[in-house]
């Protein structure tokens, strides 16, 4: 099963299956794949947690306030407990991209010094997660308990109108986040907007079957927007890391040139995000939700007609 509604299943069953599949995938990564490739396994598991939290935001009105808070906190904390390994690897990847695209005069010894620093950071972060007693085992146990709770969610709480209200909330917050980021393009505002964009992307993936071609195209554009903002955030974090290092780094004559290069790349990414953001959030929340609500209702009517036709033939 993929990360989307299934035409042959009820909405309630589809939602439960989506979450169940993500939990099982995360458990597999942390119990099996982590033995051969720890960094990749943790990365994949944390992606599963983000997908699950996106589903929770979509069905939160059906779950109720307390249940939603419990489940969201469960998967948020599971991801945070494993975050050190992935964060360190992201910084190494960011350094590699900067080096690849840099046209500034930066000495080779400075690149090597930074690479050594970040590799050491990544190694220590990995040791902390993998060697600290019971961190991974505790996360796996938490996931198994969460899987049982999800299986007991009431079917009548997960219906089309609940999904629509969840999507509206995520789109509205992204719409507001876009306007806030354009008015005050601080790293914090851009990062908050990026999180809303990412949730919207996950929601669109789930809803793609209601009209596959248009939803698929729109989903790709939202994903690209999230990538622009994600790369900008990685560069912002990388800058903070650089400027917070001891004097051998901060006093190095190549640091200023590297920071200038970093800022140029951030400016380009933010311009791309602004342009695409105007397209993604061209509609205000109400007409956007009304349009997708009409798609969903048509899809559900088609499903019902097909099922009735099948039963008649049988």
Instruction: Average the pLDDT over all residues and give the rounded result.
Output: 90
- Low-confidence parts, pLDDT < 50 over ≥5 residues? none
Compute the CA-based radius of gyration: 22 Å
Distance between the termini: 26 Å
Total number of helices: 12
Order of helices and strands: HHHHHHHHHHHH
Number of strands: 0
Gross geometry:
globular
Q: Structural class of the secondary structure composition?
A: mainly alpha
The major pleated sheet works out as: none
Helix content: over 70%
Q: Provide the β-strand percentage band.
A: under 5%
Protein model, in words:
With about 325 residues, the protein is an all-alpha fold. Helices cover about 85% and strands about 0% of the residues. The chain has helices at about 10-30, 40-65, 65-80, 85-100, 110-130, 135-150, 160-185, 185-205, 210-245, 245-250, 255-280, 285-314. α2 crosses α8, α4 runs antiparallel to α5 and α7 (about 160-185) packs antiparallel against α8 (about 185-205). The two termini are about 25 Å apart.
